[in-house]
Amino acid sequence: MGATLPAGNMLAHKGNLFAVADGVGGHAKGREAAEFAVRSLLADYYSTPETLGVAKSLEKVLNATNRWLFSQARRTPEYAGMATTLTALVLRDDRFHLAHVGDSRAYLLRDNDFTQLTEDHTWPHPELSNVLSRAMGLDEHVKLDYLEGEIKAGDRFLLATDGVWNSVPDSRLKQLLAGHGDPQELAQALLDQAGNLKCTDNCTCTVIVVREVPAHRRHPVLDPSLHLSIPPRLKPGDAIDGLVVQSVLHVSRATALYRVLRNTADGGEQLVLKTIKPEASDEESVAALLHEEWLARRVVKRGFPKVHTHPERSFLYYLMSWHEGETLSARLRRGHQFHPEEVARIGISLLKCTGYLHRLGILHRDVKPDNLLLDTEGQLVVLDLGVAASEREHLAEINNPGTPSYMAPELFYGSPCNEASDLYACGVTLYELLTRKFPYGEIEPFQRPRFKEPVPPSRYRPDIPSWLDNLLLKACAVNPAERFETADEFLLALERGATRPLARPRRAPFARKHPRLLLKGLLGLSLLGNLAALYYLNRP
């Protein structure tokens, strides 16, 4: 067993972590498997990106641990059967997160209600009490159970191996867990009870008592910035915190972007300053800008603007690197015709950047030519994380953000944004670069579009090769299940190109495209059949 109780930002971003593991008995290296699982989890969980949600962080670490255990068991005969159970609990903000595999258990005592939170992964056996059906190291791919819930002051969690819960009845576990004393005394009382009942198995347990619950934080913002004031409207020549405004780049409903010059020891440095307009300085807009900066600081890769620290900052804004170049939409407007090979190269760069965001647990949610820039070296730069979101957040919104013509069909019917909707926007973007049109026509704001079959891009551009035609039809399919599952799959299809072309997507069957019309037709035929039968039966 083990626990990590961090402080400061690590506590806020990742929470407290507790884990119990029990090596599979009867096999070599069971103890080593349990120790490795707990140690690697406690160390590696806190190394996952802050933008990842708790569930995805646990999944990444535990899947890697499982693969290592499984490979060790296959590689060396003395490690054969090396496996362990694992039950892990994370307490962050006002939520608990539970990951579990095997037959260790997690319990919750709340207001005199004693609940078993986990399910035992065992097979029934006539001679043995517990035969594991799932455990860390048993199979190449481990299936984890995951549970999330609210924490309340006074909650008591118990993580225990089967040596404890097999020996001590649930009624006695509840009685002991509800006793007075600190968690260490409660845990010792549970183990003493198991020992008194002559338990012959390993007995390990962890008791966690919740004394106080912190408030839920929706935005992991930079606290010092909360006290900064909104800068006034700026114009070329104005100076702010040692930054000289050179031009106004863009002004939206709530934000403003300026190109500024910062004097350094090596001369001037051009940067982009993003802030909020004075008339849009409500709490929601401030939180959105702070959250955008928080995300942008964690996206450290070529292909994205770099956030610059400015110690002299006395107003609410943040600085990004300036990239000389032109957006793809600007190229379209000035009449540039993108060739298929050029679009394929842009697509490869775009999907590498999109895949990087997804591995960080970030959804861009507004991929389109306006937000993609080609710099003077031909490098694609992905701009504007203004509506991006990470897995830390609840992504179900009443109105999904984004630009209608690039939004996946399911978003218009209440589904939240996900990786599939980002990939759909990538497909529509490449489609537009080639054809200057959209696969389902342009969609206006507040329009309720109807999606049928996408128009093949080769209808507008006969010079498009068939492999790219098929690829874009797959990327822009109405049904998410018919699209690319991941950015890596989409990227691989683009890189292979004509050497491994995709088959042309099948047209949707009539029954799926028009289920109501089909039903009406069947009912009509049934009615005609019944009338005909009545006519012949009643003939003289």
Keywords:
globular; 14 helices; 540 residues; Phosphorylase Kinase, domain 1; Transferase(Phosphotransferase), domain 1; alpha+beta; 6-stranded antiparallel beta sheet; 4 domains; Phosphatase 2c, domain 1; 5-stranded antiparallel beta sheet
- Kindly name the structural category: alpha+beta
CATH class of the largest domain: Alpha Beta
- Let me know the number of strands: 22
Give the overall average pLDDT.
88
| Annotation field: number of helices | 14
Question: CATH architecture of the largest domain, please?
Answer: 4-Layer Sandwich
Report how far apart the termini are.
89 Å
List the SSEs and their pairings.
Elements: E1 2-4, H1 8-14, E2 16-23, H2 30-44, H3 54-75, E3 84-92, E4 95-101, E5 105-110, E6 113-116, E7 122-123, E8 131-132, E9 145-150, E10 156-160, H4 162-165, H5 170-177, H6 183-196, E11 205-209, E12 239-240, E13 243-251, E14 255-264, E15 267-276, H7 283-298, E16 307-308, E17 317-321, E18 325-327, H8 328-333, H9 340-359, E19 362-363, E20 372-375, E21 380-382, E22 389-390, H10 419-435, H11 466-475, H12 487-496, H13 510-513, H14 515-537
Antiparallel strand pairs: 1-2, 2-3, 3-4, 4-9, 5-6, 5-10, 7-8, 10-11, 12-13, 13-14, 14-15, 15-17, 16-17, 18-20, 19-22, 20-21
Helix pairs in contact: 2-3, 9-10, 9-12
Can you describe what's shown?
A hairpin with a 2-residue loop joins strand 3 (84-92) and strand 4 (95-101). This protein has 540 residues and is of the alpha+beta class. The mean pLDDT is 88. Helices cover 33% and strands 20% of the residues. The chain has helices spanning 8-14, 30-44, 54-75, 162-165, 170-177, 183-196, 283-298, 328-333, 340-359, 419-435, 466-475, 487-496, 510-513, 515-537, and strands spanning 2-4, 16-23, 84-92, 95-101, 105-110, 113-116, 122-123, 131-132, 145-150, 156-160, 205-209, 239-240, 243-251, 255-264, 267-276, 307-308, 317-321, 325-327, 362-363, 372-375, 380-382, 389-390. The strands form six sheets. Strands 12-13-14-15-17-16 form a six-stranded antiparallel β-sheet, with helices on one face. It has four domains: 2-209, 4-Layer Sandwich (Phosphatase 2c, domain 1), CATH 3.60.40; 230-321, 2-Layer Sandwich (Phosphorylase Kinase, domain 1); 325-508, Transferase(Phosphotransferase), domain 1 (Orthogonal Bundle), CATH 1.10.510; 515-540. It is globular, with a radius of gyration of 29 Å. Helix 2 runs antiparallel to helix 3 and helix 9 (340-359) packs antiparallel against helix 10. The chain is built from 14 helices and 22 strands.
